[in-house]
């Protein structure tokens, strides 16, 4: 067994699942952190996160329930009065699915967990198509948060914030995951429904396009499988 460990933010989706396998490929023992914050598909996401933890025999799997992001609102993921928009893969606008400053909240909890478990790394699966729409997925954001970790933890604490896919496309993540034998059949990305996935929201669209570009079919069920260009 490896003598180094990493906390991994695990949403239940394909990016974080690939991050788990990437961390393990780099020799880290995985500690899972999954957060339910009032998102529409939180139960399905948690189910997938638990299944993945069992699949890889995670050292520990921490589930945190928090309501403050849902109470703050202003995101179609947490506000029932806002509709989840259909995908527009060419848009440069910040989508309604953006949860204000979510990654800072999640990374703060993950940093606490990493420091408490003496983990030497913290992994997040954010990538280029995320930061094109979500400001808290930009490389500059993660560089700045590394400084927050360094300044806000004990002097002897050394935690590397790892965003291995931050310059990658969704297709490249899918290709890497297929190389690593990530069990994508137990992951979930849909913003709108618990089962089957809708196939038409942003998350479904990017995921379906990635698998198509990688030359294979996404193994989960969809209500629709549109052809996105």
Automatic annotation (TrEMBL):
It catalyses: 7-carboxy-7-carbaguanine + NH4(+) + 2 ATP = 7-cyano-7-carbaguanine + 2 AMP + 2 diphosphate + 2 H(+). Pathway: Purine metabolism; 7-cyano-7-deazaguanine biosynthesis. It comes from the Archaea. ATP binds at residues 10-20. Binds 1 zinc ion per subunit. CDD domains: QueC-like. Keywords: ATP-binding, Ligase, Metal-binding, Nucleotide-binding, Zinc. Its EC number is 6.3.4.20. Catalyzes the ATP-dependent conversion of 7-carboxy-7-deazaguanine (CDG) to 7-cyano-7-deazaguanine (preQ(0)). The keyword ATP-binding applies. It is an enzyme of class 6 (ligase). This is 7-cyano-7-deazaguanine synthase. Its cofactor is Zn(2+). One of its GO terms (molecular function) is zinc ion binding. Pfam families: QueC. Zn(2+) binds at residues 190, 198, 201, 204. InterPro entries: QueC, Rossmann-like_a/b/a_fold. The lineage of its organism: Archaea, Methanobacteriati, Methanobacteriota, Stenosarchaea group, Halobacteria.
